């Protein structure tokens, strides 16, 4: 979860309650995946075929 977006640093809290300080160059330059943004997620089940 994003706690604060500052001028140079963005403060995040992870699912296991760690606080992460990421430089905005890193945040703006990379992709960010938010796993809990949607109520449901797709999960494909694979079975062994014969």
Total beta strands = 3
Mean pLDDT: 80
Order of helices and strands: EEEH
Structural class: alpha+beta
**Helical content class:** 10-25%
Work out the helix count. 1
Percent of residues in beta strands?
25-35%
Query: What oligomeric state do these chains adopt?
Result: single chain
Rg computed from alpha carbons, rounded to a whole number of angstroms? 16 Å
Number of domains: 1
Globally, the shape reads elongated
Low-confidence stretches: none
For the sheet with most strands, the description reads: 3 strands, antiparallel
- End-to-end separation in angstroms reads 44 Å
Strand order, main sheet: write it out: 1-2-3
Protein name: Mechanosensitive ion channel protein MscS
Summary?
This protein has 50 residues and is α+β, with helices and mostly antiparallel strands. It has one domain (1-36). The chain has one helix spanning 24-29, and strands at residues 2-5, 9-13, 19-23.
Tag the structure with descriptive keywords.
alpha+beta, 3 strands, 3-stranded antiparallel beta sheet, 50 residues
Explained architecture:
It is a single chain. With 50 residues, this protein is an alpha+beta fold. The chain has one domain (1-36). The chain is built from 1 helix and 3 strands. It has one helix at residues 24-29, and strands at residues 2-5, 9-13, 19-23. The protein is elongated. The termini are far apart. The mean pLDDT is 80. It comes from Pandoraea horticolens. This is Mechanosensitive ion channel protein MscS.
């Amino acid at each position: 979860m994003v706690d604060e977006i500052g001028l140079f640093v963005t403060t995040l809290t992870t699912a296991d309650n760690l606080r992460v300080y990421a430089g905005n160059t890193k945040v703006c330059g990379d992709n960010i995946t938010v796993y809990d943004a949607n109520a449901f997620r797709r999960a494909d089940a694979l079975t062994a075929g014969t």
